[in-house]
Amino acid sequence: MRVLAVLAVVVIPLAAGATALVPWRQWAGWATTVANGTVLALGILLAVDTAHHHAIVAAGGALRADALSSFMVVVIGAVALLTSWQAVRYLQGEVERGRSSRRHASLYIVLVQVFVSCMLLAVLAADLGVMWVAVEATTIATTFLVGHRRTDGALEASWKYVIICSVGIALAFLGTVLVYFAALHVGGHAVGGGHVVAGGRTAAQGVGVLDWTSLMAHAHQLDPGVMRLAMALIVLGYGTKVGLTPMHSWLPDAHSQAPAPVSALMSGVLLSVAFYAILRFKAIADGALGHDYTRVLLVVLGLGSLLVAASLLIAQRDYKRMLAYSSVEHMGLIALGAAAGSSLAIAAVLLHILGHALAKTVLFLTSGEIMQVEGTSEIARVSALVSRRPALGGIFGVGLVALLGLPPFSLFVSELTMVRAEVAVGLGWVAAVSLVLMAVVFAAMTAHGRHLLLGGASPTDRAAPSPRVVTIPLVAALVACAAIGVVAWPLQSLLHAAARVVAG
Amino acid sequence: MSAALYVDALDLGAGAVLVCAVTTLWRRDLRANVSLLATQGVALGAVAGVQAARTGDAGLAVVAVLVLAAKGIAIPKLLSAVVRRDPRSRETAPLVNVPASLVAAGMLVVVAFLASSRLTALLPGSTARLAPLGLATVLVGFLVLVIRRKAVSQIIGLLLVDNGIALVAFVLTAGVPLVVELGASLDVLLVVVVLRLLAARMHTRFGPVDPDQLRELHD
Question: Best mutation site among B117, B133, B158, B173 for testing chain A: the one with the most A CBs within 10 Å?
Answer without folding.
Answer: B173
